[in-house]
Amino acid sequence: CMYFSLAVVRNLSLILFSLNIFISLFTELQEIVFVIQSQSNSFHSKRAEDLERNILKQAEELGKELPRVLLIHQMDRHDGAWTILPLMQDFSASYGRNSSWIFFCEEDTRIQIVKLLETLRRFDNYLPLHDIALYIWQKGNGPHLTPVPEFCTDDLNSYKAVHCATMFSNFLPVCGDPVKKEDIFVAVKTCRKFHRDRIPIVKQTWEGEATLVEYYSDYAETSIPTIDLGVPNTERGHCGKTFAILERFLNHSSSKTPWLVIVDDDTLISIFRLRKLLSCYDPNEPVFLGERYGYGLGTGGYSYITGGGGMVFSREAIQKLLASKCHCYSNDAPDDMVLGMCFSGLGIPITHCPLFHQARPMDYPKDYLAHQIPISFHKHWNVDPVKVYFTWLAPKMEDSFTEKKQRRIREDL
C-alpha cells in the first residue's frame, strides 16, 4: 500500500483544485471577444498591437484555442466606434450565438487573463448579445452599472496589482527626446474685448514655455502684439478665423516648423508636456490631435477635436486639408466641428488624447484626473486660472510629480 503525509495530501488537493480551475478557463476563454479601442495613427496602432500580442501570449500559455481579439481601427469603417453602441448590431450578427462576453478595453489597459476569467465567473451572462443595445437604452430604465473592484485603474507596480484583473494608467507617453520648442507654432485666438482680461493670463502662465507664439484678433494691438487677420469677430464659431490661421501657418511660417497648435485665449496648456507627447508622433503623417467629441455618430455624423482644449495639427494634415478646398460655410460656423467634418470627408481620422481637456479641473471626477498628467484645461469661469495652471500644468512640478503629491495638491483645488 502507499502512504502520504498530511502535507502531501494537502498539496495534492491544491493541485487538483488548480487543475479544475485550469480546465474551466479553457472553455470560458473562447467565449470572450476582446475589443481594443485602437486608433489608426501609427503610434497608437502599435500600442494596440502590442496589447493584442500580450493577450494572445497569455492565452497561448494556457494551452488552448486563442480568443478573438479585434482592433477597432482594423475593422470596416465605423464612424463613432469609440462610443461602442454603433458596433452592437454588427457584433450581434457576428458573435451573438457563440460568445458570452464582449470585453472593451483601451490600448493602455493591461489585462491578467486568469484573474479576468475568475472575475467574470461571478456574473451571469444570461442576456443575449443581440438584445444588449435595447437593454441598455430602455428610456433610462436599463441596467445599473456594476462596480467590479478587480477592474482597477492602478499602475502595474501598485501593491493592489495582484488582486486586479485589469490595470490602467494614462500617464504622459514619451517616445524619445521632446520636440524642440521651435518645432511648435502656437496660435492664440482672441478678440479685442478680451485683450485686457485673458491675454495677461496667458503671459503669466504658459507663454514662456513656447518660442513661437502669435495672437490673432479682430484688432491689431502692438503692446501685446496681436495680428488682425481681416476676419470680423463673431460671438460663436470662429471658423473663418481658424481657417485664416491655417492658411497663414502654411504660407507664412517656416516650412521647417512641423506642428501648429491652435488654442483659445482662455485655454491653459503645458507646452512643456506637449513637447514630450509629440515625440511619439510622426509629423510626416496627417495628424490632427486633441480631445475627441462626436456629432451624429452612428447616423452619418463624424468625430472632431474640441477646440477649447487645444487642437494640434501636423503640417502634413494642414496641407491635405487646404488642398481639399473644404472650407467654412460661414465665418461663425463652429470651427472644430467643420474641421472634423472636413477630415472625415478626406478619410483622415482624428487622433484622440484624453490629456487635453475642454473644461476646468473641477468639472471632472477627481479619480479620473488622478491617473493623468494633463496637457490642457479650458475656461477661466469661477476659477483662478493662474492657480489652475501652477497646480496642474506648470513644468516645475515635473521632477516631483508623484501620485501621492499629485492627489494631495489637487484635492485642495
From TrEMBL:
Entry keyword annotation includes Transferase: yes
Main location, first listed in the record: membrane
Bilayer topology term: Single-pass membrane protein; Single-pass type II membrane protein
Membrane-crossing segments per the record: 12-36
GO CC list: endomembrane system; membrane
Classification via Pfam families: Fringe
GO molecular function: glycosyltransferase activity
Claim: Protein biosynthesis is one of the keywords in the record: no
Highest taxon of the lineage: Eukaryota
Keywords, ordered alphabetically: Glycosyltransferase, Membrane, Signal-anchor, Transferase, Transmembrane, Transmembrane helix
Occurrences of domain Fringe-like glycosyltransferase (ranges): 178-388
InterPro entries, A to Z: Fringe-like_glycosylTrfase, Nucleotide-diphossugar_trans
Compartments reported by the entry: Endomembrane system; Membrane
Family according to the record: Belongs to the glycosyltransferase 31 family.
Protein's name according to its UniProt entry: Fringe-like glycosyltransferase domain-containing protein
Lineage: Eukaryota, Metazoa, Chordata, Craniata, Vertebrata
